[in-house]
Design brief:
This protein is of the alpha/beta class. It is built from 21 helices and 15 strands. The strands form four sheets. An eight-stranded mixed beta sheet has the order 5-4-8-1-10-11-3-12, sandwiched between helices. Helix 1 packs across helix 2 and helix 8 packs across helix 9. The longest helix is centred in the N-terminal third of the chain and has 88 residues.
C-alpha cells in the first residue's frame, strides 16, 4: 500500500475513532444526564412522598388528638353534672368534707351516665336527659327544703302513693318559693354542658358494646345496692367513716349530710344506714330473756287509775318567749305557764326539726325511737308499708286490750296515714280536711283552727258513755307553716321591740299568734275536763320547732342568740327540744321524774302508772327510762341531763342499755321471720 493510501486509511480510521469517541462521550453524557434526571425525579418524588406522609401523619395525629380530647371531655362531663346536681340541691352550700365520698359520688354519676348512653347510643343525648332530670329535681328539692327543711331523699319515692296529700303541704303560690337566681345559673350551666356534649359526642355503634356496657353497669349497681352486710359495713366505714365520725353536726340534717358526702353518695349513704339489718352482735335470745324478766315486773305505782286520755299533738308548738330578739305587748305563753303549775311539765327531745310530724307520732305511739333508724328514714311510709307491720307493738293496742275505745282526729293528715293507724290498732280515724263540711269556715290563718279541734274533743267527752274509757288523739294544724305577717287578718298580740328585719319580725309574729291561740284553747279544754266526774288526763306536746324562713331562704331561728351559745351540744339540744305538759281533773299527777325525755317515753310512762295490764315490752322500756330517758338521731341525755353525741362513746351502763334497746327495736319492729 502506498503512502497516500495509508494516509487515507489512517485518516478514515482516525475519523471513525473520533466519531466513536464522540458517540461514547455523548452516550456517557446522556447516560449521566439521564441518571441525574432520574435522580432528580426520584428526589422530587421522595419529597412529595415525604410531604404526603407528613400530611397523613399530622392528619392522624390530629384525629387521635381530637379523639383524646373528645374522650377527655366526655369523661369530664359526668363530673360537672355531679357537681351541678349538688349545686342545685344544696343551695350553693356545697363543701365536700370527706374526700372518699367525692370520688364515690362521681363514680355513681359515671355509672348512671354510661348506662343511659348504652340505652340511647350517643353521649350527648345522655347528657340532655341527665341535665333535664337535675333541673327538675333541684326545683322539687328547693320547694321541699322551703316547706320541710329537708332536701329530696331517695326514700321520697315512697311518697308517690300519697302525692295528693303531700302536695297539700304547699299553701299559696309554689313558684314564689323557688330561688330563681340559683336556678337560672344552674340552667345556663346545664345548657352550656349540653352544647359542649353535642360538639364532642361519642356514639356506641355496635349493639354488642352497648349490651356489654349496660349489663356491666347494672351488675355493678346490683352489687352495690343488694344488702350484703360485710360489703355494706366496709363501704360505710371507708367512704362514710361511720365508726370514726367525729363531726357530728355535719350529719344532723339531710342537707348537712349531702354537703358532707355529696348528693348521690349522700342518698346511697342514707340508704345504707337505713337498711333493716340485725345490729352488730345481735342475739335474739338476750332480747327474749330481757322481755321474760320484764314480764315479771310489778307496776309499783298505779296512781293514775284508768282515766280517759286526751292527746293534743300540737303542730310546731314551742315556747316563743325564749326569743330575746323580739318582745311582745303581752306574755304569749302565760296560760301554759300557769297550767304547768297545775300539772306536770317536761322538755321533749324531738326527732325532727321543722317538719315530718309523723316521725314523732311513731315514737309517741309505739315506744320506738328514730335513733335506731338511719338518717332520712320514715317509719310511717317505709316500715308500715310491710304487711307484717300489723304485728308491731303500739300504745293504742295496749289501751284497747284494756277496754279503751280509740280515735284519731287530724286537722289535716299530710301523710295519708289512715292505713298506718289501722295497723297501730285505732278504732276510728278522722281526717277533718276530708270529712268536716264547714272546714273552710273554721280556718284561722291558713289552716283549721285549734278552737275547732278543741270543740270536737269537748263534744266527744260530753257525748260518751260514762262507763267507756277513751283514748282520743288530735293533731292540730293552725301553727303549721308557712308563716308571714299577712297570715292572720287580726292579731291578739303585737310586737313592741325587735332587732330583726321587718319581714322576719312579721314571720315571728304570725307564729306567735298561733302559739297564743294554742295557749287559749288548752286552757279552755283544761277547764272543761274539770266539769267531768270521770278521771281524765290531757297530754299536750309540741312535735317539733317551727320552720321560720325569710325571703332569702335563711332559717330565722338559727340566727337567734338562744340557738347560738358557745356550746355546740347545747345548741343542738335546743334545736330539737319542744314542750310537754300533762294535766288532769283529779288529784293524781304523772311522775316523769326527768327534766328531758323523748316522745317514746311519754305515753310509755303514763300507761305504766295506770291500773291496767301492759305487755313486757312497755314494762321493759319504762324500766330503762332513768338510765336513758331521751335520745334522737343526734344526741342522747342521761338522767342528770348530760348531753352526748349519739356516736361518741357513752358511759358503759348507758352504752349497754343503748345496745340492748337497738336489738329490742329490731326484734319487735324490723325482724322478718
Amino acid at each position: 500500500m502506498n503512502r497516500n493510501m495509508k494516509k487515507h486509511v489512517n485518516n478514515d480510521i482516525g475519523k471513525d475513532v473520533t466519531i466513536d469517541m464522540k458517540k461514547n462521550i455523548n452516550n456517557d453524557i446522556e447516560k449521566d444526564m439521564s441518571i441525574d434526571i432520574k435522580k432528580s425525579k426520584n428526589k422530587d418524588t421522595r419529597k412529595n412522598m415525604d410531604k404526603e406522609k407528613e400530611k397523613e401523619t399530622k392528619k392522624d395525629n390530629n384525629k387521635i388528638r381530637k379523639e383524646i380530647n373528645k374522650l377527655l371531655i366526655i369523661a369530664i362531663i359526668p363530673v360537672f353534672l355531679n357537681q351541678l346536681l349538688s349545686y342545685g340541691i344544696c343551695n350553693l352550700r356545697l363543701s365536700y368534707l370527706y374526700m372518699p365520698a367525692l370520688f364515690f359520688s362521681a363514680a355513681i354519676m359515671y355509672g348512671i351516665y354510661f348506662l343511659i348512653t348504652a340505652i340511647v347510643k350517643k353521649t350527648h343525648i345522655a347528657t340532655y336527659i341527665i341535665a333535664i332530670i337535675i333541673f327538675i329535681i333541684s326545683i322539687i328539692s328547693n320547694i321541699k327544703l322551703y316547706y320541710t327543711g329537708s332536701p329530696i331523699y331517695l326514700s321520697d319515692v315512697y311518697f308517690l302513693n300519697n302525692i295528693g296529700e303531700v302536695t297539700g303541704l304547699v299553701k299559696g303560690d309554689v313558684l314564689q318559693h323557688i330561688d330563681y337566681v340559683q336556678h337560672l345559673i344552674l340552667l345556663v350551666l346545664l345548657i352550656g354542658i349540653c352544647i359542649i356534649s353535642k360538639k364532642y359526642s361519642y356514639e356506641i355503634k355496635t349493639n354488642k358494646n352497648r349490651i356489654i356496657i349496660g349489663v356491666s353497669i347494672i351488675v355493678a349497681f346490683a352489687i352495690i345496692f343488694v344488702p350484703i352486710k360485710p360489703k355494706d359495713t366496709f363501704i360505710l366505714n371507708t367512704i362514710y367513716d361511720v365508726d370514726g365520725r367525729k363531726d357530728y353536726e355535719a350529719t344532723t340534717t339531710g342537707l348537712d349530710y349531702y354537703i358532707k358526702y355529696g348528693v348521690l353518695a349522700g342518698m346511697y349513704g342514707m340508704e345504707l344506714e337505713n337498711r333493716s339489718t340485725p345490729p352488730d352482735g345481735y342475739n335474739e335470745e338476750i332480747v327474749k330473756q330481757e322481755l321474760e324478766k320484764a314480764s315479771e315486773i310489778d307496776q309499783e305505782t298505779k296512781d293514775l287509775q284508768k282515766p280517759n286520755i286526751i292527746v293534743m299533738f300540737q303542730e310546731s308548738y314551742w315556747d316563743i318567749e325564749k326569743i330575746e330578739e323580739v318582745e311582745f305587748d303581752k306574755d304569749v305563753t302565760e296560760n301554759m305557764d300557769n297550767l304547768k303549775k297545775e300539772g306536770t311539765s317536761v322538755n321533749l327531745l324531738s326527732s325532727s326539726y321543722g317538719g315530718l310530724s309523723s316521725n314523732i307520732e311513731f315514737e309517741l305511739l309505739t315506744g320506738g325511737n328514730l335513733a335506731y333508724f338511719g338518717t332520712g328514714y320514715h317509719p310511717f311510709i317505709q316500715l308500715y308499708s310491710r304487711k307484717e307491720s300489723e304485728d308491731n307493738p303500739s300504745i293504742i293496742k295496749e289501751l284497747k286490750n284494756n277496754g279503751y275505745k280509740t280515735k284519731m282526729v287530724f286537722g289535716r293528715d299530710y301523710y295519708a296515714s289512715e292505713n298506718v293507724y289501722k295497723k297501730l290498732g285505732i278504732d276510728q280515724y278522722v281526717n277533718e280536711y276530708q270529712s268536716m263540711e264547714d272546714y273552710e269556715q273554721k280556718i284561722k290563718g291558713t289552716h283549721l283552727s285549734d278552737e275547732a279541734l278543741v270543740d270536737n274533743v269537748i263534744e266527744t267527752l260530753k257525748n260518751k258513755s260514762p262507763e267507756d274509757r277513751i283514748f282520743y288523739m288530735t293533731a292540730t294544724i293552725e301553727t303549721h307553716m308557712p308563716f308571714y305577717k299577712e297570715k292572720y287578718d287580726n292579731y291578739d298580740i303585737n310586737v313592741t321591740n325587735s332587732s330583726l328585719t321587718e319581714e322576719e319580725t312579721g314571720t315571728i309574729l304570725s307564729y306567735a299568734q298561733g302559739v297564743y291561740d294554742t295557749n287559749v284553747q288548752i286552757k279552755r279544754l283544761y277547764e272543761e275536763i274539770q266539769k267531768l266526774e270521770e278521771p281524765t288526763i290531757i297530754v299536750v306536746l309540741g312535735d317539733h320547732l317551727p320552720y321560720l324562713y325569710n325571703s332569702k331562704g335563711e332559717d330565722i331561728l338559727q340566727k337567734l342568740s338562744y340557738f347560738n351559745t358557745d356550746d355546740e351540744k347545747t345548741n343542738l339540744l335546743r334545736k330539737y327540744t319542744t314542750e310537754g305538759i300533762i294535766l288532769s281533773n283529779y288529784d293524781k299527777k304523772v311522775d316523769l321524774d326527768n327534766e328531758y325525755i323523748s316522745p317514746d317515753m311519754l305515753l310509755t310512762t303514763i300507761i305504766n302508772q295506770m291500773d291496767i295490764k301492759i305487755s313486757p315490752y312497755y314494762k321493759w322500756l319504762y324500766s330503762i327510762k332513768d338510765k336513758l330517758p331521751a335520745q334522737n338521731q343526734y344526741i342522747s341525755l342521761d338522767n342528770d341531763g348530760n348531753i352526748y353525741y349519739i356516736n361518741e362513746t357513752l358511759p358503759a351502763e348507758i352504752e349497754e342499755i343503748k345496745d340492748i334497746r337497738e336489738e329490742m327495736q329490731y326484734y319487735l319492729f324490723e325482724r322478718r321471720d
